[in-house]
């Protein structure tokens, strides 16, 4: 394993063939976001109202709950990749960069879990009577 | 990363004359991070409020339809469409097309025109329905 010259390091480690993974995942989730957010937008605009009962009744429908869950997951995957690149560019201190990645991952996974849980609860329980 | 001060840096932001391609590029990052924070938190708030019950949903609606709420929603919707059209431009650039100076400038400007037009159209639809 070379750690002297640049070429030595390259020869020692070689390509893991994962070079484009981040870039591709950003595109896959972008396509997912494009389709699913436009679906949500058109659906919301065509609902009779955006009051509690209309919205919960709409989300409780299985053909709505599933794509809505997929949308939340796609959005949080996409924002995790995007914010990661932004933080890599602007946070130069090594410790702070590590900490910001930690917070970003907690935020991305926490947000996705919260969204999926909320949709699941609506789908299983439906309208809550006060 | 340790950087030697004796070596020159390549020209950076301060030296270039601003153009539409630079504006659309930085706006992609600004809108993306705005949506990733305020937009995503708003989405989760909306879903959580709907899952919690009528009172929580009423609180959400009260905040969202306050003057500041409308300002945030209109701003975020413009951010959304700007990021969307700028993202579509990225797909074209990813395929290796659209780098000719005139085309690149035209499509950069087009993302701003399209995002403003669609944002205006969506809100006219919403306010038109309310009247």
From TrEMBL, chain A:
UniProt keyword annotations, A-Z: Electron transport, Heme, Iron, Membrane, Metal-binding, Transmembrane, Transmembrane helix, Transport, Tricarboxylic acid cycle
GO terms (BP aspect): tricarboxylic acid cycle
Subcellular location: Membrane
The protein's required cofactors: heme
Coiled-coil annotated residue ranges, if any: none
Domain of life: Bacteria
Tagged with keyword Heme: yes
Pathway recorded for this protein: Carbohydrate metabolism; tricarboxylic acid cycle
CDD domains for this protein: SQR_TypeC_SdhD_like
Transmembrane spans: 28-47, 59-81, 102-128
Quaternary organization: Part of an enzyme complex containing four subunits: a flavoprotein, an iron-sulfur protein, plus two membrane-anchoring proteins, SdhC and SdhD.
Protein name: Succinate dehydrogenase hydrophobic membrane anchor subunit
UniProt GO MF annotations: heme binding; metal ion binding
Topology in the lipid bilayer: Multi-pass membrane protein
Role played: Membrane-anchoring subunit of succinate dehydrogenase (SDH).
An example Gene Ontology CC term for this record: membrane
Source organism (scientific name): Sphingobium cupriresistens LL01
TrEMBL record, chain B:
Membrane topology category: Multi-pass membrane protein
UniProt subcellular location: Membrane
Manner of cofactor binding, per the entry note: The heme is bound between the two transmembrane subunits.
Principal place of residence: membrane
SUPFAM superfamilies membership: Fumarate reductase respiratory complex transmembrane subunits (SSF81343)
Transmembrane segments: 30-48, 68-85, 106-126
Single GO BP term: tricarboxylic acid cycle
The protein, known as: Succinate dehydrogenase cytochrome b556 subunit
Organism: Sphingobium psychrophilum
């Amino acid at each position: 394993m070379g750690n002297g010259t640049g070429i030595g390091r390259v020869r020692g480690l070689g390509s893991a063939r994962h070079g484009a993974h981040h870039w591709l995942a950003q595109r896959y989730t972008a396509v997912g976001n494009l389709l699913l957010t436009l679906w949500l937008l058109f659906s919301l605009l065509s609902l009779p109202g955006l009051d509690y009962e209309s919205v919960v009744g709409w989300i409780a429908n299985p053909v709505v709950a599933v794509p809505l869950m997929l949308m939340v997951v796609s959005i949080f995957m996409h924002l995790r990749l995007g914010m990661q690149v932004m933080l890599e560019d602007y946070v130069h201190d090594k410790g702070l960069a590590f900490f910001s990645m930690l917070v970003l991952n907690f935020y991305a996974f926490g947000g996705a879990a919260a969204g999926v849980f909320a949709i699941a609860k609506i789908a299983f329980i439906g309208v809550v009577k006060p | 990363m340790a950087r030697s001060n004796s070596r020159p840096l390549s020209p950076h932001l301060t030296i270039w004359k601003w153009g539409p391609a630079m504006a659309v590029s930085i706006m992609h990052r600004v809108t993306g991070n705005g949506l990733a924070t305020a937009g995503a938190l708003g989405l989760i708030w909306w879903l959580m409020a709907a899952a919690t019950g009528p009172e929580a949903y009423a609180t959400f609606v009260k905040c969202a339809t306050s003057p500041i709420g409308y300002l945030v929603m209109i701003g975020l919707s413009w951010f959304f469409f700007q990021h969307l059209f700028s993202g579509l431009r990225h797909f074209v650039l990813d395929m290796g097309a659209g780098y000719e100076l005139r085309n690149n400038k035209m499509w950069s400007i087009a993302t701003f025109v399209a995002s403003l037009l669609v944002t205006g159209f969506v809100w006219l639809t919403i306010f038109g329905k309310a009247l």
